[in-house]
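This is your field. Please look over both lines of this record.
***
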Amino acid sequence: MSTAIAIGAASVQATALRKITLRLSSFLFALYLICFIDRTNAGIAALSMNQDLALGATEFGLGAGLYFVGYWLFEVPSNLVLYRVGARVWLARIAISWGIVGMCLGLTQGAHSFYALRFLLGVAEAGLYPGVVFYIGLWYPAAYRAKPLAIFMSASVVAGIVMGPLSTWIMDATNGMYGVAGWRWMFVLEGLPAVILGIMTFFCLTDHPKDAVWLTAEEKGWLLNALDADRRAQPPVEHRSVGRFLKDKRMWIMAGYYASWTAGNVGIMFWLPTILKASSSAANQSIGFLYGFFFVCAFFGMFSGAWFWRLTGDRRTTLLLCGVVPFVTMTVSAFTASPVLAYVMLCVAAFFIWGMMPVFWTLPAEYWGGATAAAAIAFINSWTGLGGLIGPSLVGFIKDATGKFEWAVFALAVAFLFQAGFTLALRIKRKVPARA
């Protein structure tokens, strides 16, 4: 009898998780994929746009980074609004507004309009990433949370895989159509899906498990009991004042970690097409495929990081490797005389750069709860504003100052060394038990 009950409970559990993944995780994956394309396609556009608009390296780097300033300023307020009004309404608003601004980038006339639109794109998108991380925490028990986080976060690397070939193809295929440059068409055509998905978000998402009419009573009961068991097993911290919130050392260390990671990652992400173009005479489409393969390596790295952590339970070692290895490989890439070796080292770095994502983002949900969790996740993620501004801008400044990319790539490598230092400061000791 007890065996039959256990099998029945396992069946309910498996069915509930399958339904949640099919209905929510797959949709959130698509939403973030389009988001990431619209966030980073300026790097591909730069292959033609910079020359058409007479943008220097410093100007393009600053414009690419200003997106993260808008993101930084509005991240926490946006996530607090999401906590109050629900994910369905707020994520729909975010997607529609960023899609419209992304399309307007096709109207860029010079450095100042590029600066303004990139800043507004960050304002429009602020809250999406931490909002979804918080939202996933409402739907998945802790032991099952790493996989949906990895699925969602993998959208960013899948976007890189798709965006390189797709964006360069759009630029080449539409260039001169109705007298409009291909990079302008690219911004318009890649911004439109966000508006469509934003409208769909309002009808596809459910704010909380208790409202899920698409789960049976047994499935809903198992899910709510499992989530409640998590809260009882390790009660999360909820700060009742802004002062106590800002005095939490773990939050500041995690913010420093993420800012360092973002500086290195965003810097190479925006500048890689231009770096590849400078080191070869390859056509735009070939560069698009090289850019895409860089993200293929990142894709496998992301799931390998989750796999290594799940196998060992050791998040500290996983996060350390994801800082030290990129520092070493990018340093080799910066100073080698071989373009082939330089590219291979960047691909190895990509594997480890993205391996930290599903591991790192399991930490906030354990440390904090309620509105504090929403604010803390947003606060940590908002530091992409600092890293995202420093990374691309630093590369542009060093390129204009030296005429070369070597020292710029090394500067990005150092950011990952700082990331490893923040890992040590965080003192991660607790090992999460393997999934039942």
Notes: The chain is about 80% helix and 0% strand. The CA atoms of residues 201 and 377 lie 22 Å apart. The chain has one domain: 2-426.
